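---------- Forwarded message ----------

FYI, see the NERD domain-containing protein record below. Original note from H. follows.
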Amino acid sequence: MWVEIVCGLVIYRLFRRFFYDDDILQIETSDSNSLFSVATRLEKLHDGKVYVGLRIPDPDTGSRQNIDMVLISKGEAVVISVQNLSGLVSVDADGSWVSNGANSHKSDRRPDPVAEVKRQVAILESYLEQRGVALPEGYLSCKVIDISITDAAFNTPIAIRSDYFPPEVVTHEQWQQLKPESKSSFSGWIKGAFRGGKKEMQEPIHQKLNFILTTAPTWDKLELKGNKYLLGEFLEFKGKHDDTQSLRNIRRSKVSRLIIQKTSMFGLAHSNLQVLYSPRDYRNEGASASEWKEVTVRSSTEVLLQPQNSTKIRKFKLSSIVSMSLSA
């Protein structure tokens, strides 16, 4: 019997090695996935544009301030922080959030997210002014959206009572009640929560805001198979010399986005992939279809990326990647 078990484990490891990417198997529902899920829903609700994973220069610290997302639509500009917690959540006197996992003795403490997102508003407002856009006073607002997970044991949302939250917080219950497919959602709490009765922004300023945030520094983004996303910093390609040479022009100063296309088989030993990449154009959001360039490389070629908030460098085979976006 033990021989059968050992043989089964060996076969499983070999199967996983050849047919799956280890990094993808290790990535569960990540913070990056949560951000893009929230962004997609907000765009449907507001008929606007959400910019995810911004890295705005902070003149006070000389570093870059991470901002989860910024919602831009006619009549509003909102800096949004997404909190994805587990366990029983409480708020301390200093405003920090503490969660105690249902199946863990460890607590997760996060500094006051409302104070933090307000600081991000000031940094973004200063950045926009440096790039020639002075918004009306108070127009750029902020929200903290609580998307705390569900307790599997009791199948109930894990969050504290809404009256404990400051008004800038969109509670877990409020977030769950939104109906993206229903335009009537604007008439309820979301209208007051995001719009605050402000006049609609003039179209020229609205367009300029979109252009600035399109060209603002962000984390690089990997879109992986299985509808998974990962934010981080692209480092380099690894693989055979002729493949890396073919990809030598794909760097952030020249390329904004690349797409991994169909696979063409060459016998049973290996396969090749077509990599389409878009030359960076600071005048527009992207290149036209006629401007896309193409190279063919082995599917075993790897992308090295350091994920956001991690010191570990991950490797991803091109065959596991759908697309990659590079920040300027």
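H. also flagged this: Residues 14-29, 151-159, 181-189 have pLDDT under 50 and may be disordered.
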